[in-house]
Structure to design on (367 residues):
């Protein structure tokens, strides 16, 4: 008896990332003409399964290609192969290597918060470079690599990329844990199904901290003896009897998960921040800093005050994409020229808060 096929099976992990690519305007198609390439017109071509290596994962390849697009810039989504030239004889080949390394640093950065850094690691010839990346993927980068990575990470935290990537990464992490649970609960007298006999079995999901964050980013745990109390993103109680809270789990409408300051830290532990090295809040994380008429800057530094109707703001340096009162750079450190007379908005901005973390994400210093 003949029957009509009304549904087609697709691997759940593949589905997550094919759908993510589609939401960003990319249709994934299989093609024997190359490992992975784009046409600049909305098509992402990937080699058929039989031509991939045994450890290749469609989800990882899609994520890797999206990271290329992010490090190349938003307009790269409209250029073949993200605007990269992969010809060994090309005079720009050396820069393409730098861009590949920046892409891998971005990939590791995006995977860290979900404990997926090893699970969705690249399977290219650059795997040795990826595996050697430090706990903080941006550390030890050349200035060029660092800037490309930060630009890509910053773009990843802006619409539409932020929602799409967050949902896909969170869904991948949950699927990873679900597969591990199914394997643990399977009947020992019966072999696991083929879908459970995957590369995931050799990369178990990290345990979860009380905050819900992973105890490992997939490759690195917190430094020995590190506690929540020593983390830059622990928020102390605002009043007596209140709880300590993790700002990494906070949202505009949520204060963050309750944590114990003496508890062991999660895999995303961050030591106290150096504001002069960061200065995210003074750079392009926020587009304006409002000034009250009573702020000293208003009369002490009128050359730095902009006016739009009745609204007063600190002027910005459009070329350097930062507050006009800031000098310096990431290598030498930043310095506020009017720190003693800074507006109340700046005085009330504290390191390690939700807004601080959001600023760091927007300039590409954190994932």
């Amino acid at each position: 008896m003949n029957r009509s096929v009304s549904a087609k099976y697709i691997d759940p992990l593949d589905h997550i990332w094919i759908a993510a690519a589609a939401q960003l305007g990319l249709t994934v198609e299989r093609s024997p003409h190359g490992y992975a390439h784009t046409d600049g017109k909305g098509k992402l071509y990937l080699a058929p399964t039989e031509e991939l290596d045994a450890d290749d994962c469609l989800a990882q390849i899609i994520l890797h290609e999206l990271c290329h697009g992010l490090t190349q810039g938003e307009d790269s989504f409209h250029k073949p192969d993200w605007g990269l030239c992969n010809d060994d004889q090309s005079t720009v080949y050396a820069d393409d290597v730098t861009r590949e390394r920046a892409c891998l640093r971005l990939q590791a950065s995006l995977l860290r918060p979900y404990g997926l850094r090893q699970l969705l690691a690249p399977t290219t010839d650059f795997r040795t470079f990826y595996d050697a990346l430090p706990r903080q993927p941006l550390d030890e980068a050349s200035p060029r690599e660092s800037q490309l990575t930060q630009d890509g990470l910053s773009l990843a935290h802006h619409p539409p990329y932020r929602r799409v990537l967050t949902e896909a990464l969170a869904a991948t992490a949950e699927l990873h844990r679900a597969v591990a649970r199914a394997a643990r609960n399977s009947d020992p007298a019966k072999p696991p199904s083929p879908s459970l006999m995957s590369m995931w079995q050799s990369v178990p999901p990290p345990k979860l901290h009380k905050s819900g964050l992973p105890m490992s980013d997939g490759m690195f745990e917190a430094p020995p003896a590190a506690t929540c109390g020593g983390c830059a993103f622990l928020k102390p109680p605002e009043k007596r009897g209140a709880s300590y809270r993790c700002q990494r789990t906070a949202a505009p409408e949520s204060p963050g998960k309750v944590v114990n300051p003496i508890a062991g830290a999660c895999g995303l532990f961050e030591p106290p921040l150096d504001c002069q090295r960061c200065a995210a809040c003074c750079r392009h994380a926020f587009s304006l800093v409002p000034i009250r008429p009573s702020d000293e800057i208003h009369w002490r530094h009128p050359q730095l005050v902009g006016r739009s109707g009745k609204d007063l703001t600190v002027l910005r340096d459009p070329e350097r994409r930062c507050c006009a009162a800031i000098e310096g750079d990431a290598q030498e450190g930043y310095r506020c020229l009017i720190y003693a007379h800074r507006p109340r908005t700046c005085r009330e901005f504290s390191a390690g808060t939700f807004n601080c973390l959001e600023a760091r994400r927007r300039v590409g210093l954190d994932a």
In short: The first strand starts at residue 27 and ends at 30.
